[in-house]
Amino acid sequence: MLEPLAHVGRDPATGGYVRDAWSSADLELREWFAGEARRRGLALREDRNGNLWGWWGDPSPRRPGVVTGSHLDSVRQGGAYDGPLGVVSAFAALDLLRARGLTPAVPVGVACFTDEEGARFGVPCMGSRLLTGLLDPERALSLKDDDGDTLADVMTRAGREPHAAGRDDETLAMIGTFVELHVEQGRALVTEGRPVGVAGAIWPHGRWRFDFRGRADHAGTTRLADRDDPMLPFARMVLAARELAARHGVVATVGKVRVSPGNANAIPGLVSAWLDARGADERAVRALVADLTAEAAADVREESWTPVVDFDAALRDRLARTAGGDTPAPILATGAGHDAGILATAGVPSAMVFVRNPTGVSHSPDEYAEQADCEAGVEALANVLEDLCR
Ligand code: GLV
Ligand code: MN
Ligand code: MN
Ligand code: MN
């Protein structure tokens, strides 16, 4: 089922995917979703924040549905599974339920959330944050991409009404329970020798932008003593982030840097660096960022923060039993963020199913899942949905 998507946004040089929200690749993926929903006779809806819904049955606030799905956008140079596996598995699980002759007592929905990765505008889980009111729409709409286009600009260009974005209680009221299937982004299931696991918690995590300002000048004619080169404090900050992360027992990453103006023969005037920090203990993550902010000669701005998510224990255990077959599926904590975590934070009963990834690598073209494990994931998801929509 991933095959028809294999060419969309693929960089032939690396095999990686570039599927920024609202890009032509994303619009093509949305068309694919609409086609899959229509082919199954599902009622297709796009909400005010660009999230897509395909409904089997007619949900209402008095009869909210059991919803499953994930996202179709990607990190830059990402793999084929992070996101799309959850969406195709949602359709496949629905097919399986129909093949079993199930008549669900409540509507079943397939969801595709917009801009989960935040690759373009910097804030992850944009669609679910807007839907739940966890992100101010004015702020979201004014976020800029690398070309200086705002979210409002690109939504308008895609024929959407950006000023309708924001908390959407009508759509939220249709979601009784949300289950997201996702490729595992680590090696716990390989170690456990199990194809499928269940999420226990998502680590608290955030993104911060560090702006190091200096003075642009000529690379050949400016004496070393006369330079104000922001690349130096930036380099110190990267090393300090690594040391402080080890000291505080968390992880910290600088994965994106913008150097302005970006000439090989000029001292830069500005270096902007994005810090991603995560860990099991929120205080330790906060302490790392505070220490780094105090040390770095930079203007620091928090771009996003996601508190710890402890998935509902009763739902989690029920899922682990249903998904695991004879032995309950292992329950895993993860350092990766997901729309299911945002919905859980907003009070929607939510849970996640993970599918083994033999490489353990993610946010990279090396991400992988075996066909047999994907099928085990779909079967587990179908069993969970069948149990939840009785
Ligand atoms: C999204 O996948 C994230 O956790 O960064
Ligand atoms: Mn991801
Ligand atoms: Mn994902
Ligand atoms: Mn994610």
UniProtKB/TrEMBL annotation:
UniProt keyword annotation of rRNA processing present: no
Domain of life (superkingdom): Bacteria
SUPFAM superfamilies per the UniProt record, alphabetical: Bacterial exopeptidase dimerisation domain (SSF55031), Zn-dependent exopeptidases (SSF53187)
Cofactor note: Binds 2 Zn(2+) ions per subunit.
InterPro entries per the UniProt record, alphabetical: Amidase_Cbmase, Bact_exopeptidase_dim_dom, Peptidase_M20
Gene3D superfamilies per UniProt: 3.30.70.360, Zn peptidases (3.40.630.10)
Binding site for Zn(2+) 1: H71, D82, H182
Gene Ontology terms, MF aspect: hydrolase activity, acting on carbon-nitrogen (but not peptide) bonds, in linear amidines; metal ion binding
Chain positions recorded as allantoate binding sites: R207, N265, R278
Keywords for this protein: Hydrolase, Metal-binding, Zinc
Cofactor(s) listed in the protein's UniProt record: Zn(2+)
Residues holding Zn(2+) 2: D82, E117, H363
NCBIfam families (UniProt xref): hydantase, PRK09290.1-4
Sequence similarity: Belongs to the peptidase M20 family.
Protein name: Allantoate amidohydrolase
Lineage: Bacteria, Bacillati, Actinomycetota, Actinomycetes, Streptosporangiales
